[in-house]
Structure formats: C-alpha cells, structure tokens
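Data availability (excerpt). The following record was deposited with the supplementary files.
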Amino acid sequence: MSMYEEIAAILHPTPDLEDFPEEVRSEAWTDILEARERTAFNLETAWDAHGDDAEPLLSALAGARRRREEAEAEIRRLVAYGREFTRPRPYKLADLAAAAGMSISGVRTAYDHAEVAAVQHATGLKPREWRAADPPNDGSDE
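Predicted structure:
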C-alpha cells in the first residue's frame, strides 16, 4: 500500500458494515473504495504537480483542519439561528449546548453579529432584537 493509499484509508475508514442494511452493504463498500481511490489519486497528482507544497500528509491535515473550521462556523450559525431567529422563543441554552457539545456559557458566546447576519442573509428571516449593543462605528465605513 502506498502512502497515498494509507492516507486515503485513514480519511475514509471502513465502517462496521453490519450497521448497514444487507441490501446496501456492497454499495457502501464500493463507495468507500471509490472515495479512497479518488483521494489517493488526488494526493499523488498534487504531489507530482506541486512537490513540497502539496506533501500528502500535510495536505490531508490541512484539509481536515479546514473541514473542522467549516464545521465550527456551521455550528455558530446554527446556534445563532436557534437563539435569534426561532419563534415564538429561542431554544434553551442547555439544549443547544448538549446538541453542539458545548457548555452553556460557550453557546452564549459562540456567535456574534457576523453569524446573525449570515443566518439572516441565508434565510431572509429577521432576527429578534439583538441583545447586545451594535458594534461601535469607528467611522471607517462612512
């Protein structure tokens, strides 16, 4: 097994196929193998084309970090939605904390005006009256 294939196997681990209904196990396994092949090919191609700038393990780690950051941003937007946009009242901090794997105080401070604006832009909904003061205007955007 090449380094590319080893990294691909780590990125696309074999699930317990017993968790899948029998009629889709073969398809699930095929999907995993195809994902591994694509990943190994992409890692090797990038390494060949870009050398040290696309070192396979470091590239895979950077990709995982990027996905984590995207997931964290998604969680912040979902928490903002649950607290600022749901009617007739916001979700309880404890419920959001449990679902997000955060503390109650973490949920309370997880989002700010940027996430509220992103949710408003994505949904077209109007948020509740913001509980914190608007960020100060330093005059730089006038």
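Summary of structural features: The two ends are 59 Å apart (CA to CA).
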